[in-house]
Amino acid sequence: MPHFDLSGEELRSYRPDPAAPADLDAFWEETLAVDGQLDPPAFTPVENHLRLIDTFDVTFRGFGASPVRGWLQVPAGAADPLPAVVEYVGYGGGRGLSHERLLWAAAGYAYFLMDTRGQGSTWSVGDTADPDAIGAPAHPGFMTRGILDPHDYYFRRVFVDAVRAVAAVGSHPRVDAGRITVTGTSQGGGIALAAAALAPQIRYALIDVPFLCDFRRATSIALNDPYTEIVRYLKVHRDQVEAVFHTLSYFDGAILGRRATAEALFSVALMDETCPPSTVYAAYNWYGGPKSIVEDAYNDHEGGEAHHEQVKLGWLAARPARIV
Fold first, then answer.
1. Quick one: pLDDT band at residue 321, thresholds 50, 70, 90?
2. Is residue 323 part of a domain?
3. Stretch 91-102: mean pLDDT
4. Residue 94 domain-assigned?
5. Which residues are catalytic?
6. Which residue range(s) make up the domain with 187?
7. How many domains does the chain have?
8. CA–CA dist 215, 170 (Å, integer)
9. Can you list the pairs that 236-242 forms with residues at least 24 positions away whose Cβ atoms lie under 8 Å?
């Protein structure tokens, strides 16, 4: 696990200029408006056997009006309305069981964990299908599903789900819709970055070792899946390289993140062989809102883990949306 990427000085100034599609804004405006008026989310209380946290099983309408699941955890007896933290899950995982993730609720926030459509059979349980999947044949995994057309691409559906998750949690009476933070690690960090770019009501973003950034470079140097799913696809479909990267340009955090205005705290691991540090810095250096970054010099894709959780708790508590 060497420092295989750019040097520290080179990373901090690394600012590639991936070409944004001419119709990027129109594409996302059309995408987010496509379903019109949707039914309100359903919040069903769950017996969690926890005395200090109330749990709700949530169903809201995501892309194509398809149902998306999540957990809402709220501190029992806390004064309302509360600032909220919306978290997105890493690659292959789902929302898990109702008692598994309690940190943000224990810290006094309303905490919403969104299931990722079609995932949740790798390392944690998921409950959301992907009935809207279309497109040409794909390599196993999620990275090449619908990759020949941005309208068909898998992450178009996921990013819409992410934006609607923010709206869903903001509609709950115990949540202050003006004080919403998004967060995630790896795939979850890439989704949080996209949500910050596409949902202007988001106030803060905590983006850890984000995936889905600087695709051209990532697919050239990343040693591990999921980026290498794209590499293996292109080994077979040699004639589709430009079509693939054209589609990916609509979903690249180094492009989309320029639209964001939320204040963000990023983290990067300088020995990360899954999401190489230069790809994280590509997104960070182009990010449109106020920003800061934490480096973990000797970590791979696990990033800062519990040490960085302490940093995030302190960082968010110090922001103007702090709990009083």
1. low
2. no
3. 96
4. yes
5. 186, 272, 301
6. 8-318
7. 1
8. 32
9. 236/139, 240/148
Q: For residue 78, with 0-12 CB atoms within 10 Å meaning exposed, 13-18 middle and 19 or more buried, which class applies?
A: middle
Mean pLDDT on 185-202: 98
The one-letter amino acid at 66: S
Is 154:190 a contact under the CB 8 Å cutoff? Answer: no
- Give the integer Cα–Cα distance in Å for 51 and 106: 11
pLDDT tens-digit readout, 138-152: 888 999 999 999 999
Cβ neighbour number for residue 156 with a 10 Å cutoff: 21
SS3 content of the chain, % helix, strand, coil (to 5): 35, 20, 45
Peptide bond before 226: cis, by omega within 30 degrees of 0? yes
Give the alpha-carbon dihedral of 233, 234, 238, 243, to 10 degrees: 100
Interaxial angle between packed helices 154-170 and 24-33, expressed in degrees from 0 to 180 and rounded to the nearest 10: 60
For the chain, what percent of residues have pLDDT higher than 90? 91
Residue 127 burial by Cβ neighbours in a 10 Å radius (0-12, 13-18, 19+) = middle
Quote the mean pLDDT of the chain.
95
- What is the tens place of the pLDDT at every residue in 283-301? 999 999 999 999 999 999 9
Contact 104, 84 (CB under 8 A): no
> Residue 137 — pLDDT band, cuts 50, 70, 90?
confident
The answer, yes or no, to whether residue 153 has pLDDT greater than 80, is yes
**3-class DSSP assignment, residue 100:** coil
What's 282's domain CATH number?
A: 3.40.50.1820
